C-alpha cells in the first residue's frame, strides 16, 4: 500500500475506532494482537511501559509538587533525588521540605534563610550527627591533670572549666587545649563560680571568698555561715551574692562589701543549690525582669524575691512528696520560665508562672538517673554507668555514652554539664566543646567532648 493510501486508511480506521465503546475497543485490540507477529509484539511491549508512566513532578505545577513532597520522609526524598535530574532539581528547590526535615531531627531553624540548597546541606549534616548519636559515636574523652587532692567544685562557662580542690587551690582550664590558664591558692572549695576578672568560692570552712584571677589575691571574705557552703551565685549588676549552706540557711550578701543583707530561713536540710535568675514570665507574685532566687535542699525548692532583702518572705515551696519520702537531686535547672529537678519518681517540670507541674518524665529505671541539663528539645542525664541524651518531644533516650566506673556520689557537685545551648536544638555550630565533666579518684577531671563533624 502506498504511503498516501495508508495514511488515508489509518485516518478512517482511527475515526471508526474512536466511535466504538470501550468493550468494542478492547475486542478490536485483542483481535489485532492475535494477528501480530513477534516484531509487532516486541514493539508493543517496549512502548507500553512508556505510555503507562506519567512523571507527575514534571507535569504538576511547582506548588502542587512541593505539597506532595511534604508527605515524604527525608530518606525517601534523598532516594527520589536519584530518579532524574528534573526530580533532583524540584526536590532540592523545596525549602520547607528540608526545613521540616531538620526540625524533625531536633535542629534549630532560622526561617529568614530561604535558600533550599542550604537547608538540604544542613539536613545532610544533621542526619550524620544524629546517626553518630544513635550509634554512640558522637563523643570522645579527655582528662585534665594538675590537682593533688580531691576535686569537689566544678563550674563551666564559655569554653573554660574552673576546678576547686581539697589541695587548697582553684584552677581555670581551657577545655579545647587542656591547658591551665590560672592557678591560685584558696581554701577548700565546695562550690565555685567565675567571670573574666574574679572567682567566687564557697568552702567547707563555712565561708565564701572572692579572688582576683590575675593576682590570686583575696578581695572579699564573707563570714557568717555555721556550716559548709555548698552553692554560690552572684550578679554584678545587683551587687548581690547568694550562698546556700549546710547550716540550713541561705544568705544574701553585698558582693562589693561583704556585708550580709539577709539570712533566709525555712529549710530543714542542707541547702545544696542556689540559683539567681531573671524571671521571664508574669504571675501574681512576680513580673518579667524581676530577679528570683531559688534554693533547694534534699526535699524542697524554695522561691524568694530578690530586691526585697528586708522582711523577705518565701513566695512558694515546691516538693514532689508531701511526706518528704522522695528526695530531690541538687542539680536544679531554672531558666526564668521553667523549673526542672529530678527525683526517684522521675523528672519534674514546673511552670514558673503558675507553679503547676507541667509533666513528669519517667524513663525506664529512672530511680538511678540524674539531671544534668534541660532544654526545649533535649535533656542530658546520667547514672553510674552512662551519659544519656533524651529527646523531650518523645521522652525517649536516643543516645548514651559510657562513663568511668567510679562514682563516689550522685549528690555531690563533682558532676557538670558543659555547653548547653544544643539542648534547645542542634544547629551544626553548637555541637562542639565540652558535654560533661566529672572528678576522678586520682584527682584528675574526666571530660566528655563532642567529636568534630565527619
What is the number of domains?
2
Write down how many β-strands occur, each being a DSSP E stretch of 2 or more residues. Answer: 28
> What is the CATH fold-level name of the largest domain?
Methylamine Dehydrogenase, Chain H
**What is the approximate shape?**
elongated
Strand order of the largest sheet: 1-28-27-26
CATH architecture of the largest domain: 7 Propeller
Beta-strand percentage range: 25-35%
The total of helices stands at 9
Protein name: F-box/WD repeat-containing protein 2
Keywords: Acetylation, Repeat, Ubl conjugation pathway, WD repeat
Domain F-box: 54-101
WD repeats: 144-183, 222-263
Describe the structure.
The structure is a single chain. With 454 residues, the protein is of the alpha+beta class. The chain has two domains: 56-135, Monooxygenase (Up-down Bundle); 139-450, YVTN repeat-like/Quinoprotein amine dehydrogenase (Methylamine Dehydrogenase, Chain H). Helices cover 22% and strands 34% of the residues. Strands 1-28-27-26 form a four-stranded antiparallel sheet, with no helix packed on it. Strands 2-3-4-5 form a four-stranded antiparallel sheet, with no helix packed on it. The protein has a four-stranded antiparallel sheet with strand order 6-7-8-9, with no helix packed on it. A hairpin with a 3-residue loop joins strand 3 (160-165) and strand 4 (169-174). Helix 8 packs parallel to helix 9. The longest helix has 19 residues, at 116-134.
Q: Which key phrases capture this entry?
A:
454 residues; alpha+beta; Monooxygenase; Methylamine Dehydrogenase, Chain H; 2 domains; four-stranded antiparallel sheet; 9 helices; 28 strands; elongated; WD40_PAC1
